[in-house]
Design a protein that fits this description.
Helices cover 34% and strands 29% of the residues. It is of the alpha/beta class. The chain has a domain of 179 residues: Rossmann fold.
Length: 261
């Protein structure tokens, strides 16, 4: 069973003037295969910075702490090595890849992750089935990656990737952003199919509880000021829906009995 371990993680971002601005200030988190962790927090709290730091975005500099996957030092890996090790990132704003079709992109990604190309006959069937499950037109496979895609199409494409690549740990950064209710249900069903295999741990980053109505988390972490300030189960998400983040922003801290880190 794969385990992602984050310990005392401090991260800064490089500003245009050459200075470094600290964002994460001591994050501790463990995500195991088969678990779903929801990270919730207000804008600017560092949630996306955590996602990009795990993935290896060069804009973010780790100044202290560690990230390991099954005992391997993730921070010592290149971006592609992290993907091959089993880390998957679904971005809030997926980028366009002109001139590369969805079908070619997905097969290239699968080849890179597995170390060998999938057989064309079986791969075509797997790709078609994955798209059907997400309600995607088969013609979608011949379009250039994310070029001219609607927000819903981009997110469905990422879940197709998730299902086909079968990562050890999936970091989903605001996957619910910009989705209407029908697309949200379809995307959530895709996430749940991956969860139900028990082979993938999910770190779901979101502002809102609406996706958590369809993807039930095992653990909820409140992220404020670059760190986890409270942790709990699904009931914590329900409380956040009622109360918001105001008491954390006001410095009230976690409720009595919380494990705040």
């Amino acid at each position: 069973m794969s385990v992602l371990e984050i310990r005392d993680l401090h991260v800064s971002v490089n500003l245009p003037d050459g200075s470094a601005h600290p964002i994460l200030s001591g994050v501790d988190l463990t995500v195991a295969a088969g678990q779903t962790h929801a990270i919730m927090g207000p804008n600017g709290s560092g949630k996306s910075t955590l996602a990009y730091s795990i993935a290896g975005h060069p804009k973010y500099q780790v100044t202290r702490g560690s990230v390991s996957l099954d005992g391997q030092d993730v921070l010592a890996m290149s971006v592609d090595e992290r993907a091959r090790a089993g880390l998957f990132l679904a971005m809030q704003y997926p980028v366009e890849v002109p001139g590369v079709s969805v079908a070619n992109f997905l097969r290239t990604a699968k080849t890179a992750v597995d170390g060998q190309a999938p057989k064309l006959r079986t791969w075509a069937g797997e790709l078609k089935a994955a798209m059907q499950r997400l309600g995607v037109d088969p013609a979608f496979a011949q379009r250039n990656v994310n070029e001219g895609f609607s927000g819903g199409e981009k997110k469905r494409h990422e879940i197709v990737q998730l299902e086909l690549l079968e990562p050890a740990i999936a970091v989903l950064d605001e996957t619910d952003s910009g989705l209407d209710i029908d697309a949200l249900k379809v995307v959530s069903q895709g996430i749940n199919r991956v969860r139900e295999t028990g082979r993938t741990g999910v770190l779901l980053i979101t502002h809102y509880t609406r996706i958590l109505r369809y993807v039930a988390p095992d653990f909820v972490h409140v992220f404020v000021g670059g760190r986890i300030v409270e942790e709990g189960g699904p009931e914590l998400a329900e409380r956040l829906e009622d109360e918001g983040y105001e008491r954390y922003l006001a410095g009230a801290g976690p409720a009595a009995g919380a494990t705040g880190r």
